[in-house]
Amino acid sequence: MKLSLVISTSDAAFNALAFKGELENGMKMAKEIGYNAVEIAIRDPKVIDPEKINSLKSEMGLDISAIGTGQAYLAEKLSLTSEDEKLRLRAIERLKEHVELSSKIGGLVIIGLIRGIVGNRDKEKVTNLFTESVKEVAEYAKEFGVKLVIEPLNRYESDFLNTADETAQVIEKISMDNLGLLLDTFHMNIEERSIEESIKKHRDILMHFHVADSNRWAPGYGHIDFHSIFKTLFEIGYDGYISVECMPLPGGTEFSSKEAYKFLSKILDGG
Ligand code: LER
Ligand code: MN
């Protein structure tokens, strides 16, 4: 298991220079602390220069673990279940562009907030629409050798696919080997009966893992039992990234990222 850090950057579409600067600084910081990879959120892959990212990657010896895609939902309302068919098709197109970017810079493509919400619609119909949309993107991704992961989000962030079981049902229905599950300890702490049991149950489709403590502070600053979770991940032979996705607490981005690294690498080393 390798450690990755989610780094925040400005929206490249609005400020390409700031994006590149922040990406470079974030990658430098992650490397200096000891992380093996970074995870980046991108709203619109068309405005990203993969060559620049690749040269930063090789300069620093860091990988891209995953690409977050939720900004397109927050900023442009693009969703895989939108009632507005144009927005749904644009969401599919956007994810296909993420797939193309991933084929150049690496990283799994994350399907999180871009799922949209059910609202007052029929949950089963919306889930079917979601399944159909994801299948189309997964088939496209397969041609590029790219993997997609769906992330269950807690009830305060979305009104469907809140649990590992619900999300696994969709993944198993589509049944493609480039489509898997992303579990996040922050969401699981709210939604799962047992974090460890859910990890074990979905071991065959688990492809990516987010960590934050119960309060979304750096791991070690809340009450999630990371020793037990890592023991379970070892037991199931998980070999993907552990990606730190927490608020910049305590002490700001650099301090919390260091604290997370120290705490997690000690557990990984058997401490
Ligand atoms: C994204 O990975 C995530 O966990 C969401 O909570 C972001 O809003
Ligand atoms: Mn997450």
What does this structure look like?
It contains 10 helices and 8 strands. With 271 residues, the chain is of the alpha/beta class. The protein has a single domain (2-268), classed as Alpha-Beta Barrel (TIM Barrel), CATH 3.20.20. Helix 4 packs parallel to helix 5 (123-144) and helix 5 (123-144) packs across helix 6. It is globular. The two termini are 15 Å apart. L-Erythrulose (LER) is lined by residues 68, 70, 112-113, 151, 153, 157, 184, 210, 245.
Give helix and strand order, one letter per element, not per position.
EHEHEHHEHEHEHHEHEH
CATH C-level: Alpha Beta
Helix count equals 10
Tally of individual domains: 1
What integer value in Å does the Rg equal?
A: 18 Å
Tell me which CATH architecture applies here. Answer: Alpha-Beta Barrel
Please give the share of residues in helix: 40-55%
How many strands in all? 8
Strands ordered across the widest β-sheet: 1-2-3-4-5-6-7-8
Q: What percentage of amino acids are in beta strands?
A: 5-15%
| CATH topology value | TIM Barrel
